[in-house]
Specification:
5-stranded parallel sheet, alpha/beta
Length: about 325
């Protein structure tokens, strides 16, 4: 997949600047990971006659090594679930533990991986173009991992560069933020987002506006929704289905995904209640107005549920509870 035009512009700007550590930040779904990887590609690219500020050539041995996830001078720090989803190999010990079902893939950037990255930074470059460390999502570092990275950022080896990418920069240690050059991710224009999403394989033209609205205008997030099988028709039907308490409408959704959808629905209903237009759903898809106090209470309960959504004791029971809460809130009527 070619890099989106709004990411190409940012890549050109960032490559024209100097610095040993970058922090790419902004709302998730704007292409933080893709831009971070493109920066690492360009730093390590072996074609020396590239024009200033352009990305990697895509054809040299270094670019090929990154494509096959086997570059000796690139260290990628992701939660294990993200590593597996994006095709990056786990180290032998971690892979054996997961294969033997001794534990599930981690959702955090593990301390062991961070320590390996610190050791990686102290080694000599294998290909002679320096080294790069990519951390995504950076907010998934726990306190021990973050402190281990902090020491390396404070005293970086001479030939290693870092790129951290996050959708929640406020969760990072202030000392880490202060030691990186910050870059606020740019939003695509509405036309760019629509054209790019429409060009992706399997995305129907009629679904593009619905998916973009569902993703809050973030095209990468809209594509992820499509690839996860969340159709535009199902999204439009969700508010009325929740008002009926229809469990079938949420089958296949993880608690995290359902809570996200419900928070967007609650947000839209609160906006409509104050005379504003909805953002994530079409007005025609929304149920009748609900009681303001009940919507605010529902919003607080959804925030509480979001804190434990990734580790529910029983995902099925959590979905049932969430749907019951939604039905009750959506059928409350203003006086």
């Amino acid at each position: 997949m070619s890099l989106a035009p709004w990411l190409q512009r940012q890549r050109t700007s960032l490559l024209a600047q100097r610095g040993h550590a970058w922090l790419l930040h902004g709302p998730s779904g704007l292409g933080q990971y893709e831009l971070a990887l493109e920066l690492a590609r360009a730093w390590l690219c072996e074609r020396v006659d590239r024009p200033e500020g352009q990305g990697a050539c895509g054809a040299c041995a270094s670019c090929h090594a990154i494509d096959v996830r086997a570059h000796a001078d690139l260290c990628v720090l992701l939660p294990e679930v993200e590593m597996l989803a994006l095709g990056w190999p786990l180290d032998e010990k971690a892979q054996a533990e997961v294969d033997d079902k001794k534990r599930k893939p981690s959702r955090e950037i593990r301390v062991e991986a961070m320590r390996a990255a610190v050791e990686f930074g102290q080694r000599t470059s294998a290909r002679g173009r320096g080294k790069a460390v990519l951390v995504f999502p950076a907010e998934r570092m726990n306190m021990i991992s973050a402190n281990a990275l902090l020491k390396t950022l404070e005293e970086p080896p001479g030939d290693v560069r870092f790129v951290l990418a996050t959708g929640a920069a406020h969760l990072l240690l202030p000392t880490i933020r202060s030691r990186c050059m910050g870059h606020q991710m740019a939003w695509p224009t509405p036309q760019e987002a629509q054209d790019w999403l429409q060009a992706q394989e399997g995305v129907a033209t009629a679904d593009v506006p619905v998916l973009l609205a569902a993703a809050g205008g973030r095209p990468e997030e809209a594509l992820r929704m499509h690839e996860a099988g969340r159709s535009a028709r199902a999204w439009s039907a969700l508010p009325q289905a929740l008002a009926r308490g229809d469990m079938g409408a949420v089958s296949g959704l993880a608690p995290v995904e359902l809570i996200d959808a419900m928070q967007k629905l609650c947000h839209d209903l609160l906006r409509v209640g104050q005379g504003a237009a909805p953002r994530f759903f079409a007005s025609a898809d929304l149920p009748p107005p609900a009681r303001l106090g009940t919507l605010l209470q529902w919003s607080r309960k959804l925030q509480d549920s979001a804190r434990i959504a990734e580790h529910p004791l029983n995902a099925g029971l959590m979905l049932e509870s969430l749907v019951a809460l939604a039905k009750s809130a959506l059928n409350s009527r203003p006086p």
